[in-house]
Fold:
Amino acid sequence: MAQLRQDYDEFIARDTAVLVLGPENKDAFATYFGEHNLPFTGLPDPQHSVLKLYGQQIKIFKFGRMPAQVLIDKEGIARFIHYGHSMRDIPENQEMLALIDSLNK
Structure:
């Protein structure tokens, strides 16, 4: 999430909302977001309902949910999905920003 915070203004400049989902309950999620002063929206998903919709994997021996990034356009169509194979396997912000730019053309 630190990576997303780093370029948050770039996402906002492209009229892009950043939504972070996590497996925690709403109280734990609110505490974490408050303690870390995160500027984007957090959505708790303790029942894994969104995770199941997008096919995100849970790997117990790799710290739980594997990272996933989904870029959804303004019509609600998923235009890009990346499923990480480890906790470090996430696209760079510049790659996501370039994808957003290409969708906005």
About this structure: The first strand starts at residue 19 and ends at 22.
